[in-house]
Amino acid sequence: MATRLGVIWHSDDVGTALSHMPLLPATAIGNFRVDVLVLGALLMAGALASGIVRRSFLSLAAGFVLAGFVLGHGGLGVLRFDARSGFVADLATVALIVILFRDGLEVDAEMLQEHWHLPFRKLVLAMPLTAAIVALAARLLTSLSWTECFLLGALLSPTDPVLSSGVVNNPRVPRIVRHSLNLESGLNDGLALPAVLALAAVLGAGGGHFVWWRFVLQDVTIGLGTGLLVGLLASRLMPREGSPAGKRYGNRAGRRDESRTGRRRESGERSLQGGIPAHQKSLYALGTAFAAYGIAVLPPHGNGLIAVYVAAITLGIRRPDIRAYFARQAEDLVEIVKLGIFVVFGSLLTLHGLFGGGWAAVTIAAIVLLVARPVAVFAALTGTATDAVTRGFMAWFGPKGVSTMTFSLLILSDRIASATRIFNLAALVVVFSVIAHGVTDTAGSEWIARRSERRSAREQRAPAKAQGAGASGAGAGTGSAGTGSAPQPDQ
Predict the structure, then answer these.
(1) DSSP code of residue 157
(2) What percent of the chain has pLDDT over 90?
(3) pLDDT tens for residues 235-260?
(4) Could you check whether the bond before residue 300 is cis, i.e. omega within 30 degrees of 0?
(5) Angstrom distance (rounded) from CA 107 to CA 353
(6) Residue 362: what pLDDT?
(7) CATH topology classification for 30-51+59-85+101-205+321-454
């Protein structure tokens, strides 16, 4: 395959080269062309509809899943992706890498130091409790074994950074809420993966010789260490403004620019921190994400997703300049990745598969969204300074999306007897979550933002009123004393 790719890259006529590839049938080429056409059409449609979506309760994520469903196996059959193919699993992994890295860069150092206890409680307490409640419900409502039920619970325990991005990226939402949801959705993907792989290994062939504690310890520890080291190294390799290397690079760039325009431009477009353009710094950050993942998954096989998120946090805290460049330049890439994964996921769904479990499947989905997550979050945050409204808001915005999709697709490729059934149950929860959280994303974030602003305004007015009342009282007392001590004119 590498040789064929080399022939294509050096060919003068790519179309001719593709048509003469012996191991690439015409049907595959035709499917690729259709997929590209659909992707382009959906990108255009999404861009045109974005203004309407932003002003309404609609969600582009839900629209993309619906479009994939209509065009996929459950509808017209235009998109023909194989759920067990490497392409689908690789696309989901790439989506997680890009999205987790973007969210990790958004973590603020001050918030991480001062307000770490809320996401920590949700990761350590709420996440396992959610998995346990889901497993218990599945055991009561289905014929799955306990191990299979806990596998389903592990699949549905992480929250999705894509569907909660509208809340996390809204600056009007209270910082503690955004920070807590961001850290939770970023870390729980990587923390859930060891449990998913461990339970899948137990259910698969040779599971009797599986040592789960050694697997989890090795997986998580290597992921954390790799992410930290890669993030530190990446933050030091990129020249800073004012460094000798940066000055030399910037001076050369400035002389070239001066020779072309006759004057040195003072804008950041010419020389951004050592003359390296903003888009190159953004690509550098993206390269750090994939490098962290690739190094972590090398033998002895650590957790690549945890490595990506930790590397992003480290790089973002040590180099806020790179974080800012990536935030400005990478938004289009993130949107394309989101579009691709939601469309592909929707194309794999069928009505028979989603509702083959009957009312038991629907009940499990309702329990996951309406019972398991709220109960777990309220229990985990008991005793904290958050009020009931804030807890309820964070309890609701625990959507199921890309991570559950990815892990479910990984399960399909394993030799597990109930893999298809588990996938369909998890997929139904994701569909319900995409619709429910997509519809409430914008409205919910605006509501909590207005509530926070009104509360801040009341807190600011209270001291002013108290100060005004004190000043009035002091003035009245002064006036009375002045009247009593004033000398009276002679009669």
Answers:
(1) S
(2) 28
(3) 999 988 665 544 544 444 444 444 44
(4) yes
(5) 38
(6) 95
(7) Na+/H+ antiporter like fold (1.20.1530)
